[in-house]
Amino acid sequence: MNKVNPLLEAQDKRKPLSAKSCLQEQDPVEERAKESNPECAKTVTSEPSNIAVPEEAAVEPMVAEPYLPPLLPDEKKFSAKVLHVAEDGTIYVIQECLENELGVLMLDIQDSFKCLGLMAPYSWRKGEGCLIKGSDTLTYRGKVLDILSGDMITVKYADHGYTEKIPKCHLYPFVYNPHIPRFCIPCQLNDIVPVGDHWQQDAIQLLKELLLKRVVTVHIVVSFYFCLLKLNGEKKITFFHY
Q: Which of 27, 21, 121 is nearest to 61 (CA)?
């Protein structure tokens, strides 16, 4: 049985509405018309079975977010470790107090999925939760970002922030412990705009050299959206959490 920290347990009560459930909702105006004059109900209602819906108008079912969003502490200052710097400048951190919990989760995943074989053909959808067999042979919680040509899929590592293109055979359609929130917190540099409309590769490389695997102090300065990060007690970087 997997051990889950009670602090991390939370029930995801969000239930995404399907197109079918939305169509079945009664219009309050229609309901009042039926109550006041039953004879006019026939003029108000319509028979959906007689309406031909074109195939192109069909709505694709909404894919629910597979994992809960990361938890933020109540304190206005906390320690965190930088896990990843993405190509778009997004910086992913994890609370230092939750590093052990992430380690326990990873061990549970490896113990629970030791003998995963090759996957049978499966129709993947964007946003779907999955397990990723990484290049380091470890298994991670993930999410499908895009379906590429051939047998490739772009995935995101839910607890680490990495994005990678991998073959479909390295994915498994299973959401592991969805009630445990994602561990990594995505941040952006506040009031710092890259030259042009995107970050240059040398700037991203510099951020990686400065921040990766470093323990930093994060200060929440405006509600829970803006964070002030101190590096080595001298350099200060303002983060934006979205």
A: 21
Buried b (16+ CB within 10 A) or exposed e, 86-105: beebbbbbbbeebbebbeeb
**100-126 per-position pLDDT tens digit:** 999 999 999 999 988 766 667 889 999
Q: Does residue 191 sit in helix, strand or coil?
A: coil
Classify the C-alpha dihedral 219-221-227-231 as positive or negative.
negative
**DSSP H or E stretch at residue 182:** none
Q: Per DSSP, what are the bridge partners of residue 142?
A: 130, 157
Q: What confidence score (pLDDT) does residue 217 get?
A: 80
Mean pLDDT of the chain: 74
User: What Rg, from alpha-carbon coordinates, does the chain have?
Assistant: 23
The encoded tokens of residue 141 equal: 């919680």
pLDDT exceeding 90 applies to what percent of the chain? 41
Question: DSSP string spanning 96-158?
Answer: GGGHHHHHHHHHHHHHHTTT--PPPP----TT-EEEEE-TTS-EEEEEEEEEPSTTEEEEEET
37: CB partners within 8 A, 6+ apart: none
Measured distance CA(33)–CA(31) in Å, rounded: 5
Residue bearing tokens 């997997």: 2
What values do phi and psi take at 132, rounded to 5? Answer: -110, 130
Q: What is the largest CA-CA distance in the chain?
A: 78
Length of the chain: 242
**132 close to 182: Cβ distance less than 8 angstroms:** no
CB atoms within 10 A of CB 117: 7
